[in-house]
Every structure is written in C-alpha cells, then in structure tokens.
Amino acid sequence: MPTIRLLLTLALNRQWQLLQLDVSNAFLHGDLLDDIYMRQPPGFQNPQHPDFVCRLRKSLYGLKQAPRQWFLKLTGFLQDQGFRFSHSDPSLLILNKDNIHIYILIYVDGFLVTGNNEPAITRLLKQLRSQFALKQLGDISLFLGIQVLRTSNGYFLNQTHYASKLLNDAGYTDCKPAPTPTSSPSKQKTADRTPFSDPTVYRRLAGSMQYLTITRPDLAFATNIVCQHMQDPSNQDFKALKRLLRYIKGTLSYGLPITTENLELHSYTDADWATDASDRKSISGFCTFIGPNLISWTVKKQVTVAKSSTEAEYRSLSAATSEVIWLRRLAAELNLPQEKPTIIHCDNTSAMAIAKNPVFHARTKHIEIDYHFIREHIGSGAIQLTHLSSKEQIADILTKHLSPPRFNELRSKLTIRSSNA
C-alpha cells in the first residue's frame, strides 16, 4: 500500500497519466513446469476409461501453483521488454531506457501503469494484449476496493462503499455516531470480561476493519485494540467494536488526500509505555509523509516488555527508521531521490540521546542488537532526529486514547478529511 500511495504521488507531481489494467482469467495463462494430473471433471468422463486421469498442460484455478505461475509468466514477459524488478518491492517493475521511465505495479490480475512517454506505454499495452486477455479500464478510479477520486488539486482516496457495507453487515446503518473511535480510559476500568456470545461475528467485523485502515489511519489504533481479542472476545471487547462502528458511521466520507507539493520524506514516531494492562507491553506508532501526503503508518504492540518509557520510545524509533530507510530506497528507484537526511520527529529526548551517543551502552545492553542500527544511519546522513514537543506529536493518534478535541486536531494533521471538505 505505501508503494501505491507513492506511485500516485509521483504520477500526480509529474503530471503523468496513471492507467488501470486488468487481465481476464489470469491464472489460466500460467505454464506448468511439473507433471500435474487431475481426475476427469464431472460431465466430461470417458465411459471407456473411467479410471483415467487428465494431464494438465496449462494452469487452472484451484492449483496451489497457479498464482506463482501466472506471476512468473507476466513478469517474464515484462522482463523480455526491458523491465527489471524493483529491489524494494517485488510487485513493482521498472523500465529506464533512453530517457523513457515506465513503472508497472502488479497486484494479482490487476496492475497500474504510469510513465513519462505515452507512445511507449501504448506500444507496451499493445504487446501485452497480444499475449494476455488485457482489459484497459482507463484512468485509475477503483483499485483494490479503494476509490480514487480526481479533485482540483490531486487525488482523494476513500473506502466509503466498503465502510457502508461493513455497517450494513453489522446492522449499524442507523446507529448514533461517536466523536472518537475509542472511549476514554476511565470508562474502561469497569471491564466486563464475560465471554461474548458470538465470537464468529466479532472476528468477521474486526477482520473487516483492518482493510478499512488502508485509507483511514485514524482507525488504526482502535482497530489494533479490537483485533488483539479475536481469539476470545468479551462483552467489553464488543463494546469497543461497537464504539468503532459508531465512529465510522459519523465519518463515512472521510479519506486520504494526495496533493502536489515538495517531495521530501519526514516521519513522526511515538510509543505508549506499558499501555496494555494484561501483559504490560507497549504500543509503537509512526507515520511517514512525503511532502504533505501521508504514505505510510503503523500501529503495533511491541513483542517484548520495555523496562522504561525510554526503551519503548527507542524501539519505536528503530521501527520508524527501518520504514524510512525502505521508503528512501523505494523513492530513489522511482526517481524521487532524497538528497537531504530524512527527519524523524521524536518527543523523547532520552531515546534520541541513546540513538546518537554510544556511551549509553550500559543502560541499553539488555536491548536486542538489531535495534541499535539507528546510529549507523544517523552517521551516514540517511536520517536526522529532531525533537518536538508532545503537543506537536502527530503519532499520538496511533498510540493513545484521546479526547475528542485532541483527536480531531491530530486527525486534521494526518490530513484525514471528508471528501466534501
């Protein structure tokens, strides 16, 4: 998903056309490298040889090999045309030849194509049609269930239809909207741990929420909380899920804008120490922008218990650094090189001191070695740590329960807004 958002940002800023393509019966195109046999299909049995089996010459839907063979067939053809795989994302193929730049992003049987040379793209599409049952759907409008609306100053990504269907399936189309996706912690102290009567419904709704966060980072923290209890949900967990549904009801038209401006990466990282009362693990959250556009965010419970708030923040800073280094590499492959160090905003001075200064080793020797690579990237000039006040920390919305005024303030800074705004 970050690759899709970055590709949209690239096409918008370079004023390139972004085409959406689809292949009919994609899995039937795959070539089989192994001998595979199947029973005679119903209605096509040979009465003289009812025990004979069929040897497959081409791939079929239902074969475990089918997706891989289709991907190999398509990418093999594109490599013959001069494309190469991106080192950052294996679903992205790149052509850089004679000042022609074309990018193809593949997702199963659908893909996006953009580039700086329309005649070259037209020739490529003609070659693709000669090999596959290609359907050209025009400019991007609906990709992977995400509506991409063209506005006066860019794109607007939303999942209004998906959110409406989710509310309808849950029976909450006429519910009362809530101002925030989570209730205040004071209301959660009297937790009802009675097992919820229908865990299947809870799991289905909670799982569906995860897909909605593709364009709604304001839902990410609350969704992370409800998904932690899918194995054994309680009545209290279902109340939290209902609260999230009520918030969605009041923000159906909300989504993520992509606009034109500078293309410098910057990131915000935060952690909430020992926030989970059941196991005392901390929550990490970070979000990364390119210019004004939010392209990547993460909410995740840390895998081990942090011994201090500084350690929790340091682990979150390490995770954000990993994401930033990957995004810098991806941006470079898309001809959006980051000439300056990427600024990572952190509101914990102790965590920043540990990242910059090796003399703090005695305080951090219990932390796994893989978290200590931050210092390398600071030294190489890839990243730069900058302190900001907790009041200005945008990533707070990804790690904490917030009051409605604070939540609305940070949601606005994440650029999440209504399509009617």
Task: Describe the structure concisely for a colleague.
This protein is of the alpha+beta class and 421 residues long. It is built from twelve helices and 18 strands.
Describe the 3D structure.
Helix content is 34%, strand content 23%. The protein has 421 residues and is α+β, with helices and mostly antiparallel strands. The strands form four sheets. Strands 4-5-6-7-1-8 form a six-stranded antiparallel sheet, with helices on both faces. The model has no long low-confidence stretch (mean pLDDT 89).
What are the secondary-structure elements, in order, as H or E? HEEEHEEEEHEEEEHHHHEEEEHEHHHEHE
Q: What is the annotated CATH architecture of one domain?
A: 2-Layer Sandwich
- Quaternary structure state of the chains depicted: single chain
Largest sheet entry: 6 strands, antiparallel
* CATH fold group of one domain: Nucleotidyltransferase, domain 5
Number of helices: 12
Strand content: 15-25%
The structural class is alpha+beta
Helix coverage percent = 25-40%
Strands of the widest sheet, in order across it, are 4-5-6-7-1-8
* CATH superfamily (homologous) name of one domain: Ribonuclease H-like superfamily/Ribonuclease H
In one word, what is the shape?
Answer: globular
For the termini, the CA-CA separation is: 24 Å
Rg, rounded, reads 24 Å
| Nearest-integer average pLDDT | 89
Q: Any idea of the CATH class of one domain?
A: Alpha Beta
- Number of DSSP-assigned strands: 18
Give the uncertain stretches in residue-range form. Answer: none
